[in-house]
Amino acid sequence: MLAGVYTAIVTPFNDDGSVDYEGLRRLIDLQAEAGIAGIVPVGTTGESPTLNVEEHEKVIETTIDACRGKMQVIAGTGANSTEEAVVLTKHAMEAGADATLQVTPYYNKPSQEGLYRHFSTIADLGLPVVLYNVPGRSACEIAVDTVARLAKHPHVAAVKEAGGSVERVSAILDVCDITVLSGDDTLALPMMLCGATGVISVASNIIPARIVKMIKAALHGNWAEAAEDHRSLYRLFTSMFMDTNPIPVKTSMAMMGLLEENFRLPLCSPDPDVFEKLQTVLSEYGLIENTEG
Q1: Is 132 a catalytic residue?
Q2: Residue 205 domain boundaries
Q3: Which terminus of the chain is more solvent-facing, meaning fewer CB atoms within 10 Å of its CB: N or C?
Q4: Is residue 289 one of the residues assigned to a domain?
Q5: Is 160 part of the annotated catalytic residue set?
Q6: Model's pTM, two decimal places?
Q7: What percent of the chain has pLDDT over 90?
Q8: Phi, psi (rounded to 5 degrees) for 99
Q9: d(CA 132, CA 106)
């Protein structure tokens, strides 16, 4: 069962644009120390669209090796081509991933039958599949009825809900038995109240222990404590989306000395006003030194 906090880990780059694999290992070690349940490499937050296949596979291999015996790995191996997703998923499976995160095929906007066939083909490989519903990026939603159809497949394990709708958790669990994970930090607690078992988190890149505390409280039914944690972290959660993900979180991590602030085009550093706002929020949360005075 998938439950708890899974960090959608960033992909650190060196100044020359190459992937910083040793830096990735250091980030994963920090996640393990904080009690994170698992790592999700090369998802949206990992800038997967800008990694070539060799880099994509090596990031997954590095993550699996760094997590071995400590945390689960849900490898991002989705694509808008079923054939490509199959190739990437086979590699992750052979490398030892615990599950695969499969984003809804983007740009080509398949029908619901096309989505069903796409995800079923990947699930037939045998690696547990986490469906990734993110219509804001893919321009295509996995309909609740389609989730219910896919949930009958023995290797479709969960769905990551990142469409901004708490109601979908109830709608999904009303028609099928499947694990639901929140894809939004701000909605993690509300979704868990409706039956989700955890979150695939962006903010846990910078505050893993605090988010683990909130999610553990919710899993143990300590809703008042979890709600207090949620309220205290809300501003930080929303600040991670002042700009396109993962720009704010990587910029924040650079301010905290966790990595070098390097992106691959078309992503780039944020505008000065976003940078200043992030500085203010991080200093208020005690993550960097106070920037005033």
Answers
A1: yes
A2: 4-222
A3: C
A4: no
A5: yes
A6: 0.95
A7: 94
A8: -165, 170
A9: 11
105: left (phi over 0), alpha (psi -120 to 50) or beta: beta
- Is 67 part of any domain? yes
Q: Rg for the chain (alpha carbons), in Å?
A: 18
3-state secondary structure of 133: strand
Could you give the number of structural domains in the chain? 1
Q: pLDDT at position 293, please?
A: 45
Provide the CB-side half-sphere exposure for 207 (13 A, CA): 24
pLDDT at residue 139 in the model: 81
Instruction: Give the Cβ contact number of residue 149 at 10 Å.
Output: 19
Please list, in sequence order, all residues whose beta carbon lies within 8 angstroms of the beta carbon of residue 86, skipping any fewer than 6 positions away. 121, 122, 125
The DSSP code sequence of 209-274 is: HHHHHHHHHHHTT-HHHHHHHHHHHHHHHHHTTSSSTTHHHHHHHHHTTSS-----TT--PPPHHH
Which CATH number fits the domain that encloses residue 146?
3.20.20.70
Q: Identify whether 246 is preceded by a cis peptide bond (ω within 30 of 0).
A: yes
Residue 196 lies in a domain: yes
Query: Is residue 142 in a domain?
Result: yes
Given the residues 6, 21, 116, 132, the one annotated as active site: 132
Pick the catalytic residue: 116, 160, 213, 216?
Answer: 160
What beta strand segments (E) does the chain contain? 4-8, 38-40, 72-76, 99-103, 129-133, 156-161, 179-182, 198-201
Exposure letters 234-271 (e unless 16+ CB within 10 A, then b): eebbebbbbbebbbbbbbbbbbeebbebbbeeebeebe
Token pair, residue 50, equals: 């800008």
Q: What percent of the chain has pLDDT over 70?
A: 99
